Protein 1
Amino acid sequence: MVGSVIVGTGARLAGRAIGRTGCRPVLMGILLASTALHGASAATATAGAPAAQVAQQGGTVAFAIPAGPLPGVLAAYGQAAGLQILYPTEIAQGVSSPGVTGTMAPREALVRLLAGTGLTARFADADTVTLEKPVAGAAGAVMLDPMTVQGAVSGDRGRSEGTGSYAAAGPSTSATKLDLTLRETPQSVSVMTRQRMDDQGLNEIRDVLDQTVGVSRMQSGALGTDSEEIYARGFAVNNYQVDGIPRSTVYGFGDSISDMALFDRVEVVRGAAGLLNGVGDPSAAVNLVRKRPTPTVQGYVQGQGGSWNRYRGEADLSGPLVENGRLRGRVVGAYQDGDSFIDRLHERKKVLYGVLEADVTDDTLWTVGVEYQKHKSDNASRSGFPLFYADGTKTDFGRSYNSGADWAYFTHDNLTVFSDVKHRFANGWTATLNVEHSTREYDGLIGYGVRGSLNRDGTGMGIWPGRWNSTLQQTSINADVTGPFELFGRKHDLMAGIGGYYAKRSGLDYPLWFIDGYDTSISNYFTWNGRIAEPTLNPTGWSQTNERQMAAYLATRLRPTDALSVILGSRISRWEQSEESHPDGAAGTATKRSENGVFTPYAGIVYDLTDIWSVYGSYTSIFKPQDYKNVSGQTLDPIDGDAYEAGVKAEFLGGRLTASAAVFLIQQDNLAVADSGRFTPDGGQAYKAAKGAKSKGFELELTGEAMPGWQVGGGFAHTSVKDASGQRLLTYVPRDTLKMFTTYRLPGAWDRLTVGGNVKWQGEIYNGSGSRRSEQGSYAVVDLMTRYQVTEKVAATLNVNNLFDKKYMTSIQSNGYYGEPRNVLLSLRATW
């Protein structure tokens, strides 16, 4: 007996010969090496997660496993089916499998992928499959007893790619860094899977969040212009993570332009997430999880074309780079170019991502990677159009009106390198070290025409001109350990870590908003086509912002009984931010703010009522320094408060369908609220601090496979935000939203066809008062989707968005901005 292998849940393919794959590892090596030479080859860890926790009896799973060496095929199967596969190493050496594609029961898929291998399989229990090689001349199969378990620590146990499901594939660490399923997590967590993003054609993070339950997107300008706000539970969402690493809140570090080609899924933890972010909002934390290399060769190329001359090309290649499979890689690239329903607006982007991972030992996984994203918007405006004439009556602009100058542009150039090492100890503990460095640059030549008061003859308006240009850097380091321990005869879990980041923004200062001698006026706003003299903008000095955060955090899950879990955690943080400004010919100024020893407690409880139903409750505190300023130019005090949540969660059909219901209460002071019509000394919007702000509401969500071939994802959310006197706040953010997307793969002779639809509804919003009160009534937008499997490897998908061409505004704050009219997107994808 040479040894044995376990693949599937909690284990990965490693430490054995995968067999010869011809030139494919060589080809993969050449491609990834070439990518590395161009500064964009990299690595992340492989998935090893159960996709649907499907038992041997019952429902179906969508499989897309190509032919290849048997060990790699079995690893992919174990991930997709949520099963452990046990077999002696030697019986798989040099054996190939035909793979398996299609939606079917795990048992049927296993039979197909073992065809021609000479091996047989049996279910040892509902979650474990053993393979055996029949002995010649024997009356029946003889099971070879496994001796050892080989396989490096899992890089991503929650991978959704290849599952075909809208439900979370496995555990999530986004809320507490403990390895918990969504049902075991005492907070509301929504997961946008790879299949869901592909089905809806969601290519950007803003589109993903727009379809996420309990999240509202308020767009008021072109992508990349910082004129897009995301809200959850009544507050702005500013906490972003990538693979669990928090992003700085310094201006420019937001992930609003992130392209989804790089990511396996997006996990949104609604409510406060201070345990892992330290400083943050009580709205939500958004964690983008990168794609990982795969144990077998796989890939796709995709072309898209749609309304307003939008075109996109995307390619993805992944697999082993050496014959024993201990080095794997992946490269992803995308290019997009197109116009918009907004006149003259043109956008284009380039995306490149490379990732390598290596099994240094059977228990140590090393990942290194690079991602690059560049985006540019031409003729771009930071705002829409005036909602009122000077006399107080309402305007009526078309949806395509562009208030941007024809020379205005916004560019973002982002490069990130990252590496992590994970080591699994014999006692079940895992240690992880993450290091990441990000360099970014943004450049915006600003000119948008919403200055002044519009007269009915088209006069009275002008542009706000200026330029923003800065370089940003962030270096993050995090180290943590997780594992089980025993206390009072029961097994519990513990997580402990330290981490932090240093972020810097620096750049030249340019004239902004007010430029001596420059005529900003627009002669006729109704006929204006963006043509106006470009101002001369010479540097006026330089400025720099530095931010540091260091923290130690700890969390444990105690299991007093099999049905009861108590999660306790805390974080001690140090936060510091300094700003320097050095105008030409004048003495520089410097300010510094810091918060030391900030204590963030976390507590949660989960009780399993049955095998299906659980109830939970959680509490955490809120602390966030903010950059908003009042009319005097003074920075508002940090936000502080408390967040409470309670609810019920359920897993149906072996976890393939999940449901949740939550109620929440958030109390905080110093919430920044726009001081309507008032400005800071430098011309920016002034804010005032609201005392005793309170947000409360509830959320309902249903996600997964309701029946074979039928996927659903969506829910309803209600939020009410008021100040201490009971006055409603943030009236321009909807209190009620409903989102539901569903697809169905037809049975029988029609099984090549999948049809789907989406409904997104939101309640009314308003802003202002009296004759200057702007309103957007409740509305619904309907989308349709259909996919046809042309061949086993080629599929065509058509998305029709805003089918009934509903006209609605996505922003009614100081100016108006419309949502997209009816549009189509056709995608053609070939896989292997």
Protein 2
Amino acid sequence: MVCTLIALSGARAFALEAVVVPQDVDALDLTNVIDIYTQQASSVQVSTAPGTDGIVRRIEVRSTDDKASYWGVFALSNPGDEQLDRLLVAPNYKMVNAGVLRPDLGAQRITSVTPSQGIPPEREESAEADVFRITLDPGAVVTFVAEMHTQKLPELRLWKPEAYKDSINAYSLYRGIVLGIAGLLALFLTILFVVKGTVLFPATAAMAWAVMAYLFIDFGFWNLVFGRTFMQVQLYRSFAEISLTAALLVFLYAYLNLNRWNIHYSHLALSTLVIGVGLFGLAFWDPTIAAGFSRILFSVIAFAGFALIILLAFQGYERAIMLVPTWFLLLVWMLGAWATSVGALNNDLAQPALSGGLVLIVLLIGFTVMQHAFAGGSLNDGMVTDMERKSLALTGSGDIIWDWDVDRDRIYTSPELKETLGLHPQALDGPAREWLDYLHPQDRDLFRGTLDAVIDQRRGKVNQIFRLRGLDGHYRWFRLRGRPVVGSDGEVVRCVGTLFDVTSQKMAEERLMHDAVHDNLTGLPNRELFMDRVNAAIARYRAEGTGCPTLVLLDLDRFKQVNDSIGQAAGDSMLLTAARRLSRQMKPQDSLARITADTFAILIVSEQEAESIAAFCEEVRTILRTPVKFGEREVFLTASIGTAIFEGENERAADLMRDAEIALNHAKRLGGDRVEVFRPTLRPIAQNTLALDNDLRTALQKDQIKVFFQPIIRLSDKSIAGFEALARWEHPSKGLISPADFIPIAEETGLINELGLTILDRAAVQLAQWQRQFKHSVPLFVSVNISSRQLLKHDLINDVKAVLSRTALTPGSLKLELTESLVMQNPEFSVRVLERLRGLGAGLSLDDFGTGYSSLSYLQRFQFDTIKIDQSFVQPNGNSARPVILRSIIALGHDLGMEVVAEGAETESDSLELYQMGCEYAQGYLYGQPMTAADAGKLLTEQHRHTA
């Protein structure tokens, strides 16, 4: 192509070369032959292709309406001796190479065609292409100038008229069949929706109608019916693609049952649908952009839907499994549509095949939906009759019937429910979603989750309690008991059961809940409820700036002595009296609680002045001092009072309680029966205890707690019979800390369990080593103290069992020492635990015998093998009755079949006296202070050498 095109009136010339038109070719592709001028001009001058005589001519062509147009130039040659009649065809829409993001949605391509010579081409009527009849004389070379409506020409072909007519007829028959199938399918699914009434059919029918509308426009029938308005065709083609996207989303949402109150799926689907609907508005502004976004959204829905379908299929969801093949075919169709749109697939059959494939996909989806909807139909109908019979029986029994038709999403209940609640007879008969308006807000998620579980699991029973609001605004409690009914397709078709009014039962439970946060003896709030009120008071003060809270802690002095000397009944009477006296001093805004056995707490918000608060505390202290009569006795009570006023903006309820406890403890340290107000100078005293607690936790982690052993001597031969294992704390900065300082802290914080288990395990391991190393006729034993928390802890038996199994000790050689007052706190429980421990092979020693208040009747039931006499009975104190008491204790121990160990043997005379009284063992500084395991091993080695 070597000719030139001269620029006139804003136009320019192109190089041309005539294309030979064969007589035996049905269609000649001119798409890549025509030269298109990409800038608009109102006229163009063209140098024609050389004729048979080699002469190049010039022609000028003006636009039909003198407006700027795009121009295309091509030349045709008829070398034969016969006149040729051909049809120049430029399709208005071609899917091949139409693009994805801003697709070509169709337009008029060629306005007119002007030849350089011969008969002017005539436009022929066509609903889907620009068609011009071209006549070529024999031996003629004709240059054609096409006035174009757009600069893009998807396809340009030169057809034999008969061949083009046959092609059109063939495609028209195919399109009619495809469109007929799509229309019948849409109509059939719509009719099924009217008959069946489930949500699946309108969703599927909407998709079928969207496909039909898309094909109606794509096949050109729109132009036949509504005329040739290309801007409207683009708009409607964009509308059809957006509708298809929205219909796909609605179908996926409805078919997979994602609308069963799953709020996340609902929000996601609704947001996507809103975006899709918004594309309709965008289409009015630019249909191509709207169509591009619609195609992207369609792809996202298809791939995300396939991932969701696969996920649900692996979970055994029957609907998802049935949809997998059809959805996979949809993804294959999308891949073909993408390849065709970008030009990777360029074939005349691509576009018709994609249209037929789309109908096939909708047809398969329709079959899947019908298979699911009708698979359990006969069972469903049969079960309705069966359920009616059961309903009659339930009606006779007086229970409320509850029936949920899952497919139609309708709930039916007996009229008794509405009568109970005072509602309209049809109030609760309808979709399950409408129940949410009557349910208590706290029960709505439970109700939704229960029904979701029924649908998802397709088995099991429903047994839930929830509240329904009556006409008067009050809620009543109901228990729902039901069972899902599964069709032959494995899906739940109904859920039937009964409702039972359990309001009376729940009120009883609420009374129990009241008792859980109130003290059983006094009826006052307990610690949990009181702290909640303190939190509320602090929050109100921060929000409103009024009602600064003050916390008062009141502890009865020497209350334990009252219980021990007069009895627990007297102690309870004292507590009730104190509670009544304190209640009379309370104002409506203030709160009173019993937080421990003999400790009361008062929250004051009615008084703000320090003087008024101090006067209130003194008044409380005074009224408690009034004697209380119990029988013929008068008991005088005093109280230690600690007060803390809320001051810091960042202070919490726990901080306020801690400050009040610090003030209370300071009042008790000063002798009690006094009022102390918290001040920052008191905090270091409490912080020392807190610091010691933190250090103790660290010591347990870093192995700073050591086990020392104090020898226990057999008095008959002065040999070492065993040791008492004692805990010692080697603090890195404070040195050796006495057990009297850290054991009480461990008891308060609960670390005593971990500490006791550590001592028990280490002592057992060391004892096992000594028993293997030193063979005695009577094995060595080691005594380990057990605290009250360890005894009351249910894991003590398992801990001892584990220690004994790991060390393989001689039975009875690991002795557990328990104090007399400890086992008497709960004698019945202690008896059972001691029996279990003795059965495991542990020895039992009763420590500090004679210092408690035990009953000898219980003492006979305890399984002790050793008693330990407190050193207060051993060491001389000038009391002439001491030897008598000591001899009596030893005799009592022997009478009960126990061996006796005496603590506090400091001199040889103490040792001799104990031996003469029949005491078997002695322990004291006379025979050795607590020592390390290495030092104790040396003593054993030396003793073994002497006896060998």
